[in-house]
Design goal:
SwrD-like; Flagellar protein FlbD; 1 helix; alpha+beta; two-stranded antiparallel ribbon; single chain
């Protein structure tokens, strides 16, 4: 799960496994595999990093914390 913030300032968590795309135009829009979209205040790069960190936490795709990135 990753924490995001709506434009009205309310924060909540979403399951990163269901995120299909993250776009900035100009607000950051997250589209889920269900087709649902949400607009958040975090920049696209921050969302992408949060997704990578989440994947590392649950060891998806062999992304481990104890191995340095190349």
């Amino acid at each position: 799960m990753i924490k995001v913030t709506r434009l009205n300032g309310k924060s909540f968590t979403v399951n990163a496994l269901y995120i299909e795309t993250v776009e900035s135009h100009p607000d950051t829009t997250i589209t889920f595999t269900t087709g649902r979209r949400i607009v958040v205040s975090e920049p696209e790069d921050e969302i992408n990093q949060a997704i990578i960190n989440f994947y590392r936490t649950i060891n998806v795709l062999g992304l481990r914390d104890d191995v340095e990135e190349q």
